[in-house]
Amino acid sequence: MNSVMLAKQPILDRERHLYGYELLYRSEQPTEEWNGDLATVEVMINAFLNIGMEQLAGEKPVFINFTDNLITQELARQFSPKDLIIELLEDITLTEEMKEKIILLSHHGYRLALDDVTSELFLQWHKEKMISYLTYIKVDFLAITSHEERAKLAKVIQALYPHITLLAEKVETMEDFKAAREIGFELFQGYFFMKPKVMESHEIPSNYFTYVQLIERINRKEFDLLQIAEIIQKDLSLSYKLLKLINSPAYRRVERINSIERAVVLLGQKEIKKWLHVLALRDSLKQNPINGADVLVKSSYYRAKMCENIAEMLVPEYKQEAFLVGYFSQLPAILRQPLDRLIKNLSLEETIEHALKEIPGILTDVYHLAVAFERVKWEEVDFYISKLNLSKEDVANAYQCANAWVLDVLKEELHTIE
């Protein structure tokens, strides 16, 4: 499985209370070639989908860096203005197109912060008449070492743009903090308070071409949610991300989920489309599509269809729930997290949760039979066949159908790759 990482650094107010966080890209391979576009997209996927914004920041605002290319592509417009604060990197070139994009973001209610500001950078943006569209200015205390120059810059900004919130970044001493507060800075960030804290999780690999296929279908005038759900259900990574997303603070519903189809309906076309675009952009930047399924992912596919096939013979009204029991049964091994923590993030129906926790019940027995068949434990297979009053022929047929379905799913992936 892929290890996913990012770092968060706290931003404090004048009383040293937590105001928010800046989210920063981190990698297990520190020598890799830097790609600012990919770094931002990775941060957003890891924050919202893999780790979870609630775990990262709770209700606090988050600052995320944006390159000029991502501003031009309007990636931020895929998100609600309340989701994030757009941190404009200092090397953004203020072309006419860029200025139009920034103005549009401001007019739509997005909060914008200019990063690593020096006196020269401020003057450049001031001459271009772009400061008024900002919400925050982050003054670089390592680049401006003179207290007098910092004070002069702060005074000018406060006089010309009183709506701007001044943030002192790269604050490394108590003296810097006290001096910044005295000259009017409202927010503070730097090693003096805390170094960035690295957060790590794991991600189920997916197939880039699945995103492409879904985006093509989701853009059609005659949008078929059931067809979209069917495609998503064949991708464990997308299915898990979908359920985790719908359980996040931004989307959380009161009702629990019993199927991928229900999750797709609840999330809706707009939100699914947004995340498909972001995920496809990430994988296109990496240019590293997954070739085939990992053994644990393949096992998840088999268990899902086997549980569904058995349930259809016993309790057809619960076949969708049975599918998700098998589908998500390998998540603890894949993501290396306890089952209870994973379940908490998915808002699954209680019948599904109980079976995953192996609490006695019909779906638990169905799941045990599917796993016993997978592991070739014939005594257990015979036990559950007898307990569930099934015939060996029916169960063998369910197994063959499940395997055929898995092979079809994998063939579809390989066909799209070729």
TrEMBL record:
Residue ranges constituting the HDOD domain according to the UniProt record: 204-394
Domain EAL: 1-210
Record InterPro entries: dGMP_Pdiesterase_EAL/HD-GYP (IPR014408), EAL_dom (IPR001633), EAL_sf (IPR035919), HDOD (IPR013976), RNase_Y/CdgJ (IPR052340)
PANTHER family referenced in this protein's UniProt entry, alphabetically: CYCLIC DI-GMP PHOSPHODIESTERASE CDGJ, PTHR33525
The protein, known as: EAL and HDOD domain-containing protein
Organism for this UniProt entry: Gracilibacillus marinus
